[in-house]
Structures are given as C-alpha cells and as structure tokens.
Write a structure and sequence with these properties.
Length: about 270
C-alpha cells in the first residue's frame, strides 16, 4: 500500500495537471467538444434519414463521395496546421526567420505542402472506392475538380487561422488543429441537405464555403446538374476568408515577433 509520502507525491502530480488544465482554455474546450460535436453531427444525420430512408439508393455513391470530399477538407486543414506546428515542435521558427524567409513566403510553402499532403492522402482512398464500393468518383469530371479546389482553399483558411492562434497562445492550443475543422462539420451539410438544419443554422451554413460545395455535389449526383451559383458562392467566400486568414496570421506573427514568442514556443 502507498504510504503518506507516496500519496503526497501522487496528489502533487494530480495538482500539477489540474493547474495546467485550469489555466488552459483549449484543453477545457476539448473535454466537452468531441462528445457534443458527435451528438450534433450524427443527430442531424439520423434526423434526415428518418424521413428519407430511400435517399442513398437514389444516387449511387453519394455518401462515399461525401466522405471523400470531407476528407479533402480535413486533410487540407491539417496540411497547413500540422506543417506549421511541426516547426514549433522542433523549435525551428526562430531559426527560420533568422533567414531571409518572409511570413508570406511561409504561407505559400504551407499551402503548397497542404496541396501535396491532401493529394497523397485522398488519391488511394478514391481509387479504392471502385473495387470496394463500385464508386468511381473521377466520373464526376470537372465538378470534382471544382469541389476539390474549393474545399482545399477552405482547409487552408482554417489551417492558417489555427496556426495564427497557436503562434499567439502557444502549443497548448494545438488541439485546435482538429477542433477548428470539426466545428464546421455539422453545418457543412456533408451527409444531408441544407434544408435539414434549423432555419437559423442554415443562415450560418450559407456563409461557409463547404455547404454550397456539398449541396453542389448532391445536385450533380442526383440531377446531373452542375450548380454554377453554388460554385461561385463558394469561390467568393473562399477568396474572402483566405484574405482574412492570411491577414490574421501576419498580424499574429507580428505580435509574436514583438513579444519574443518565436523563441518561446512552449505551452
């Protein structure tokens, strides 16, 4: 049995982690975030299928295509955010910016690496969908490319925003890499139409690029029609958000440089 000194040491370790948790809002947020998000997302999926049980049979591959397009968005976000955080893990930001590298050049490198990572991650899954599920997503042609690049750019926006927050608040905020993109999942209408959401959530979903992309995907699969209005809506929103995300990253970089945070990359 543990004696009193052992209990004090155990208590000290518990207290240490309790203090870390109390002072770290990203960790507290994460504790409640995942159960809540799973409940909301799959609650809407269940609500939709309760009244549309034959929906999947009407368009072969609609759910498989949705899963693959969602993964493009997810991987694009991680491609930016994780590439940046890897520099923080290796404590390399200070060394990078001793060189002539400029912040905008770093953004360019991060987004290009995100493009490569997304291609590497999504391509095998897209090819496997044919022998496993008899779904050939490349048959979508031009619409697939339009969906891909719109979701890719939205992932860049989220990734740059998360990177800016991690740069400002330290590695304690690194869990935002996953939290940020999944926050948009229920209102991105990945597996169900926009009409499934309550009216007030539909207004929020319409200001995200993902919702018109997934609505456009269903229009192609169900009706054989490429919705140009939804395409241009997503493009316009992506241009706006990419500009804002880049500006936020540059602002946080300036604050980090002024406060010496580039060399103090702990939690």
């Amino acid at each position: 049995m543990m004696g009193t000194p052992a209990l004090r040491r155990v208590g000290a370790m518990i207290l240490r982690h309790a203090y870390v948790l109390r002072r770290s809002w990203p960790r507290l947020l994460e504790l409640a975030y995942w159960p809540t998000m799973q409940l909301v997302l799959w609650g809407f999926v269940t609500k939709f299928f309760m009244g549309h049980s034959s929906w999947v049979a009407d368009a072969a591959g609609v759910l498989i295509s949705a899963v693959l397009l969602w993964d493009i968005l997810f991987r694009s976000n991680l491609g930016v955010a994780l590439s940046f955080i890897e520099e923080m893990w290796s404590r390399n930001l200070g060394q990078l910016f001793v060189s002539p590298l400029r912040p905008m050049e770093l953004i360019g490198a991060l987004t290009f690496m995100s493009f490569l990572r997304t291609l590497i991650a999504a391509t095998p899954a897209a090819f496997l969908a044919l022998p496993l599920f008899d779904v050939w997503v490349f048959s979508l042609g031009f619409p697939l490319a339009a969906f891909f690049f719109n979701l890719l750019v939205m992932g860049w926006c989220v990734g740059l925003t998360v990177s800016a927050l991690v740069l400002r608040f330290g590695l304690a905020a690194e869990s935002l890499c996953w939290l940020g993109i999944f926050l948009a999942a229920p209102i991105s209408c990945i597996y169900y139409p926009l009409a499934t959401l309550p009216d007030w959530l539909q207004m929020i979903a319409n200001v995200l690029p993902a919702a018109p992309v997934f609505e456009g995907m269903r229009a192609v699969l169900f009706n054989g029609v490429f919705r140009w209005d939804l395409f241009w809506q997503a493009v316009g929103l992506n241009v706006l958000y990419l500009t804002l995300a880049s500006a936020l990253f540059l602002k946080m970089f300036q604050i980090a440089r002024e406060r010496g945070l580039l060399l103090q990359q702990g939690e």
